Amino acid sequence: MTSPADSAVRPGVNETFVLNLGPQHPAAHGVLRVKMTMDGEYVMRAEPVIGYIHRMHEKMGENRTWAQFLPNTGRIDYLSALHYNHAYVAAVERALKIEVPRRAEFLRVITSEMNRISSHLVWWSAYLIDLGGLTPLLYAFDDREKLLDLLEAVTGSRLTYTYFRFGGVYNDVDEAFLRGTRQFVREFRPRLKMYRDLVTDNIILRKRLENIGPISAEQCRKYGATGPVIRGSGVAYDVRRAEPYSVYPELDFEIPTRPEGDSMARYLVHMAELEQSLRIIEQGLDRLPDGPVLGKVPRVLRPPAGDYCFAVEAARGRFMVRLVSDGKDIPYRVKLRTPSFSNLSLFEETSRGMILPDALALMGSLDLVIPDIDR
Amino acid sequence: MNPTLDQLCEQFGRLVGTVPVPSKPPVPTASSSVGPALGLPVAASGEGRVAGPASESGAGLRPADQAAKMAAHPPPAPTGPIQKTDHAAKGYDLDVTVAPTQIVMAAEIMDRAGFGLDAITGVDWLAQEQMEVVYDYFHPTAPGRVAVRTRVPRARPEVPTIAAVFPGANWHERETHDFFGLVFAGHPDLSPFLLPEDATFHPLRKDYQP
Q1: Cα–Cα nearest to B187, from B96, B102, B104
Q2: Alpha-carbon span A199 to A204, nearest angstrom
Q3: How far is it, in rounded angstroms, from Cα A166 to Cα A168?
Q4: Pairing mode of beta strands B183-185, B158-160
Q5: Is 0.80 surpassed by the pTM of this model?
Q6: For chain A, what are the domain ranges?
Q7: Which residues contact A221 (CB under 8 A, 6 or more apart)?
Q8: Measured between CB atoms, does B60 come within 8 Å of chain A?
Q9: Which of A71, A107, A147, B196 is the most exposed place for a label (fewest CB within 10 A)?
Q10: Interchain CB contact of B193 with A (< 8 Å)
Q11: DSSP codes, A265-314
Q12: Closest to B203 (Cβ–Cβ): which among A59, A310, A341?
C-alpha cells in the first residue's frame, strides 16, 4: 500500500483531488471553508479559507466613541461574550485608571464563569454531533437554558451580552439570581457525572478521539494556540493565572491539563473546566460583598495617549485587546487578538496525513467560533 | 530556563546596539535617536514611547526604586528602544523598538526565550508618514509579556516576515497586509485573507475612503 506521502512525490501514481468543505457545511461549525487536497481518504493539505463573515470590528472601533464600541465586543465570539466585554472594559479602565468596586468584580467573575459553562456546553453538543452523537445536545441545552435564563434576568440578553460597563457592571443582581445560581450549581454537578458516565467513558467516543490529532506544546507556542488546546498539550497556561486580573487571584481553582495532546485530551480539559467554573461560581457567591456595582466614571472618556493591552481567559483561550489612544474620545486603533484565529492556524500543519473523519474530529476539538476568527 | 526580563533587555540591547546609524537614512530606524530627527513631537500625543526613557520607563516606580534599579542594572547603550513597563498600567512588561531589518532577529530572541506569538498588527501614523508594526509575545510557562515594534515609512511599508521563526505569523501577517497594505517580504502568500478575494483596498489605513 502506498502511503499518502509517496503519491505526493510521484504524481500520476495516485491522483489527488480537491474536496471543498463549506462554507456552508454541517460539519464546519459555521461559515468556515476548508479547501482539502485529498489522496483518497487522506488529507494532503487542508487550507482554511476564512473571512466569509468578516465584519471589520476593528474599523468600527475607529469610528465610534470608546463607549459606543462596547456592544461590538459581545458579538465577536458570541458564545463567550462576557469575557470579551471584560477585556475591553478592563483595557479602557486600565488606560483611564478607573476603579472598579469589589462587588462588581465578583459579579464579573461569577457571570464570566457562567458564560464559560454555557459556551463549553455548546461546544460539547456541537462536537458530539460532529462525531455522530445527536442526543447529548438535548441534555446540554437543557442545562444551558437555565444559565441563559439566569443571565437574561440580570444582563437583559441571552447571548450577546453587554453587561460589563466601564467601572463595573450594568445592573446589580437580585436575590432570585443568587438563589437560582446556587441551585444551578447544585443541579449541574450530578449532570456532569451523568455526562461522564454516558458520553466521556463511552468506548465509541474514546476510539474516535484517543490519539487523534496530536498537537505538541511546541506547536501551540509557535502558533500562539491557547485555551483548552494548549492545556490539552500539557501546558498549564491560563491568563487568569499568567496575567492575573479581577478577583481571580483570591479564588481557589485548578487549571486542568492533560499531557497527551490529542483530541481526547482537549475534550477532557473542557469537561474538567466545567467543574472548575462551578467552584469559582460557588466561591464568588460565598464571598460576594455588598456595595455599589458601578464606580466613578468620567462622562466623556478620553484615555491618555499611549497604548494599553488587556488579556482575559475567554472560553477558547487568550483574548487580548490592544488599544491605541491619541487622547481623543474615539479610539485611534483597536486590535482584537482572538483565540480561535490562532487555534485554527495550526490546523493545516496538524491535519496533514489524517483521514477525513479524523481531521474533522481534530477541527471540532479546537472549539472554533467562526465570527471569532473572522471578526 | 526561563529568562528574566533583565536577560531579555540585555539580549535586545545587544541587538539594537548593533544598528549602524545611517548617514542618509532611507529607512528610518526606530531607535532612540530617530524620534526627534524625524520631527516627531517628543513626548507628544500618540507616542510617548519614542520620546526617550524618562517618559515611560519609570511609570509605577518611585524615584528611589528607579535609581536603585538603574544602579543594579545599568541600561544598555541606547536606552530609548528598550523599556520596562508596568504591567498593571500597560498590559505588558517590556517594550522594545527595533529597526525593520532586526525584526527577524528579535523574533529569534523571543523564540529562544520560549515565548509564543500572541499577535501581529499595524498602526497607521498618517501625520508622521509612518506605519508601525507591533509584535506581541506571551510566555506559556513564565510571567512576562513583550511588545516588539518597528516603524517603516508609509510610502514603502515593508518588513521581513517572521513566519520562518513562528509559523503562526503567517496568518497574522496576511491579515495585517489585508488591513494596512504592509508588505511582509518573503511571506509565501499575501493574497486577501479576511477581505474579499478581489480586494485591493486596505481599510485600516487612516486615509482609506470606502
Answers
A1: B104
A2: 9
A3: 6
A4: parallel
A5: yes
A6: 4-49, 57-374
A7: A230, A235, B114, B115, B116, B117, B140
A8: no
A9: B196
A10: yes
A11: HHHHHHHHHHHHHHHHHHHHHHH---S-SB----SS--PPSEEEEEEEEE
A12: A59
d(CA B99, CA B17): 11
Q: Is A220 an interface residue toward B (CB < 8 Å)?
A: yes
Q: Which fold has domain A57-374?
A: Cytochrome-c3 Hydrogenase; chain B (1.10.645)
pLDDT for A94-120, tens place per residue? Answer: 999 898 999 999 999 999 999 999 999
Portion 12-41 of B in contact with A at CB < 8 A: none
Nearest Cα residue to A268 out of A365, A143, A146, A165: A365
3-state secondary structure (DSSP) of residue B84 = strand
Shortest CA gap B22–chain A (Å): 28
Residues of chain A with pLDDT under 70: 1-14, 25-29
Phi and psi for B39 in degrees, rounded to 5? Answer: 80, 20
Cell of A215: 498537537
For B50-165, where are the alpha helices, taking DSSP H only? 53-56, 63-72, 87-90, 103-112
Given a contact cutoff of 8 angstroms between Cβ atoms, the answer to whether B100 and B158 are in contact is yes
Grid coordinates standing for B149? 515594534
Q: Are B152 and B130 in contact (CB under 8 A)?
A: yes
Three-class SS of residue B97?
A: strand
Confidence label for B159 from pLDDT (cuts 50, 70 and 90): very high
Average pLDDT, chain B: 74
For A185, the grid coordinates are: 450549581
- Measuring CA to CA, how many Å separate A248 from each of A89, B83, B143? 17, 28, 16
The pLDDT value recorded for residue A10 is 58
d(CA A270, CA A267): 5
Digit-coded pLDDT (tens) for B75-105 = 333 346 888 888 888 888 888 888 898 899 8
